[in-house]
Amino acid sequence: MAVIYEKLKMMREKAGLRQGQIADYLGVTQTFISKVETGDRNLTVDQLESAVNLYGYSLEAFADEELDAHPIQFAFRAQDVSQEDLHVIADIGKIAINSRFMAKMLEEANVG
Questions:
Q1: Can you give the pTM of this predicted structure?
Q2: C-beta of residue 69 within 8 angstroms of C-beta of residue 57
Q3: Which residues have C-beta within 8 Å of that of residue 62, sequence separation ≥ 6?
Q4: Which of 5, 84, 90, 93 stands the most exposed, by the fewest C-beta atoms within 10 Å?
């Protein structure tokens, strides 16, 4: 589990998001997110799925420290990111995750 929480923190920082923003997005407190990132608390499966969608990772990428993961890169023009913005980004992330999965499946089908 420690690998997952280290990756969550790394991706949050790479995205330029604060713990408070992620907490609001997931419906928890900033203190809870801080404890998650240090391994003192655990996210529910739904919360973890919401987080990975926001960052554009598959659940597999978060669990496997060896897996080469490719997060979605995004840039913000506004000073602050609203909760609505985060939900839209997560929806786009889910589409990207599914697209990567489908491309991998097609590639494997063509090889096999």
A1: 0.72
A2: yes
A3: 3, 4, 7, 8, 48, 52, 69
A4: 84
Q: Pull the structure tokens for residue 94.
A: 């889910």
Residue 18's identity, in one-letter code, is R
Number of structural domains the chain divides into: 1
Task: Give the CATH number for residue 37.
Answer: 1.10.260.40
- What is the domain extent for residue 8? 2-111
Q: Is 67 left (phi over 0), alpha (psi -120 to 50) or beta?
A: beta
Q: What is the DSSP letter of 72?
A: P
On whether the CB atoms of residues 11 and 71 are closer than 8 A, the answer is yes
Q: For the chain, how long is the longest CA-to-CA vector?
A: 49
Model confidence pLDDT, tens digit, residues 59-100? 777 666 655 555 566 655 556 778 888 888 888 888 888 888
